[in-house]
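Quarterly update from the structural biology core.
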Amino acid sequence: MWTGDLQKANVIAIFAVQYVLNILWSFVFFSLRLPSLAFFVIIALWFAIIFTIINFYRISKPAAYLLLPYIVWVSFAGYLNYSIWQLNPLVSPAPRASVCAQDAKLCSDGSYVSRVSPKCDFALCPKEDLIIVESPKPREIISSPIFIKGQARGTWFRSAEFKQNQFRS
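Predicted structure, tokenized:
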């Protein structure tokens, strides 16, 4: 390999590369929240540290020995990074869930319901509002064909067909 000043310049460059990889890993893992990409960055960092230790050993054995706790720490961090990646495969920089105010609504049966994400509306009270008709509104004039829009709690679905009749009031 190289000797003299060229060797020292090479070792400084290698040390700078592992330093940049260390900063990059922190940014990718903590700021971007991409443990999958951060794992590959930490693998590159691990190899860069090994390469740094080997090259430091050629110049100064104590300098190489001082990097051994660093490689142990990065190995442990790599294990943790991999574990987090595997335990949370869907972690992505998606928008964070909204946090709703912690207030409650009293239901007619005496129970309370809180607000729920994503719109922070109150949860439906048990045995209340089983069917909610959104349109037509009360006292709204309707015409044929009529479209009824609403919600019904539960996993059941109904469809209906009506024949045209005239109603008089």
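Helices lie at 4-31, 35-59, 61-66, 68-87.
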